[in-house]
Write a structure and sequence with these properties.
By secondary structure, the protein is an alpha+beta fold. It has a single domain (2-72), classed as 2-Layer Sandwich (Alpha-Beta Plaits), CATH 3.30.70. Helices cover 19% and strands 32% of the residues. The protein contains two helices and six strands, in the order βαββββαβ. Strands 4-5-1-6 form a four-stranded antiparallel β-sheet, with helices on one face. Strands 2-3 form a two-stranded antiparallel ribbon. The longest helix is centred in the C-terminal third of the chain and has 10 residues, at 54-63. It is globular. GO terms for molecular function: iron-sulfur cluster binding; metal ion binding. Pfam families: Fer4_15. It comes from Halorubrum ezzemoulense DSM 17463. This is Ferredoxin.
Length: 80
C-alpha cells in the first residue's frame, strides 16, 4: 500500500497530522509534509505505508478536507 500526497492542493488544516504520524506540520509553508516520501512529480509526494499503519493512512486521507491524499493498494487500485 502506498500514499500519494498532492502538497500543492494542501491548505494546511493539518487534520492528516492528527491521524497519521507520517504527516508533519510545516508552519513556514502552512502545509503538511509527508515524512520519508519521494517527490514523484512537482509537489506530488509518494511513500510506502509501513505494516500496521494502513488504517492510519486511510484515516489521514479521509480526514483531508481538500482530498490532497490518496491511498492505493499494492495493485495500484485507489482505496481512498
Amino acid at each position: 500500500m502506498y500514499v500519494e500526497f498532492d502538497r500543492d492542493t494542501c491548505v494546511g488544516m493539518y487534520q492528516c497530522v492528527a491521524e497519521w504520524d507520517a504527516f508533519e506540520k510545516d508552519l513556514n509553508d502552512g502545509k503538511a509534509d509527508l515524512a520519508g516520501s519521494t517527490e514523484e512529480d512537482e509537489d506530488l509526494f509518494v511513500v510506502e505505508v509501513p505494516d500496521g499503519e494502513e488504517l492510519d493512512a486511510k484515516f489521514a486521507a479521509r480526514s483531508c478536507p481538500v482530498d490532497a491524499i490518496e491511498v492505493y493498494d499494492d495493485d495500484g487500485e485507489q482505496v481512498v
